[in-house]
């Protein structure tokens, strides 16, 4: 076939076309992937080289490359938007599964926070303009412009299946995706080195980054002293570091949406999947949002969220103090995480058990968005798996046997179990059909569900409605206004349980995202792994793997919100 097809259960796929078009389609995809890989490798080389003083790559080189990439990507986006506006037939199909409203809403939210971060970054570098290169001030301004243009582009075009200039569009989308990944890597390196720099005072690590806005390094290229002494400068410096997690998530959200658009270039959709479909386009679920739950899940999740937020604040205050307070903060932090992860594991397991009694049909239709969601969930979990297994080996093989070691071991084991069972629950949920989608060979026996009290005569006029029991003491031949009792659907309690489970897991994943994203690093405050592996090796492991674990939490939130709607 010359194009990707997504036929519905009763639709016949479009007729196949000539073979050469299929070969060129693969060639166009290969060309765009090679472009993105080479651009990304160049960016990674400069970013990683600029992270250490011993390498003669300056932060201005990194900023210049990122600024150039963002300008080129913004120009291509403007070209794409103008072309599709002037030529509406260029987009004959729109994928209902792509760009759900909660994903686009999250993109806008993180984009707004990124704009605020750019304001803080511009204010910080402007505080000592005399000894700074102009590119350091130009970079956040260009990034703000790029974020505005890209957010609008993804809001209006995320569902497009474009059918003109296919290879140019694929290359443009892949270049923009590589730009977002380069921005993500620069932010991760900057934040990781900032965290390592704050911890290195108690360890034998002296290397630090040129990307982080440290006063002793701000004028590294020109050799002048650029110190951040004023109160306003300190506010700008601290403020934009606290906003880094939102910038990181914005880049990853945009990357996933751009990848789905790239997969949809030249895609043909059948009438059953064009404009609606399971998952992102299921409108009935949006009507019942926040209504069909037992409220146990959201209430318990909200309690854990508030408690976790309080423990995180206490941890941040006490962990940098004297040794006794640090020990107390770590015990409190690990105890909360063990309780939270244990509950999440049991709840995810119960959700998978409930699915054993669910009669909804499995959705096997082609869905690039769902395929990407599953791959990201499985791939991002590997980062946390790696940290957990390193911790298990350090605790088991290490000499100290104390309370903190036991808590660390329990935390690592539960982290692995929680990721496994939560992934199983989410992936199975994403492959379930919407409510009412039962296997075709199962007869529909509940045509009158949803009524509690009804007029008997009116009910008997409905076709295929079985005889209805009446209230005790009433006669079957009673007046028309007799009240009838219709039992609720058999699967109604299952749907409520699934909604409660997804809301509970969603709130727990948010608090487990907030803690590491905003600076909680028990990996370094707890010296078990540092003493076992050495600071340099352990810092490299955490700084490489932890960003994937942080991304996993936010991506799980997005997937669980979809599971909630589909339930």
Automatic annotation (TrEMBL):
Topology versus the membrane: Multi-pass membrane protein
Main location: membrane
Assigned protein family: Belongs to the otopetrin family.
Stretches that traverse the bilayer: 30-50, 62-81, 101-117, 137-156, 241-262, 294-315, 335-355, 375-397, 501-520, 532-552
Full protein name: Otopetrin 2
Superkingdom, taxonomy of origin: Eukaryota
Presence of keyword Ribosomal protein: no
InterPro entries: Otopetrin
GO molecular-function terms, A-Z: proton channel activity
Gene: OTOP2
Organism of provenance: Equus caballus (Horse)
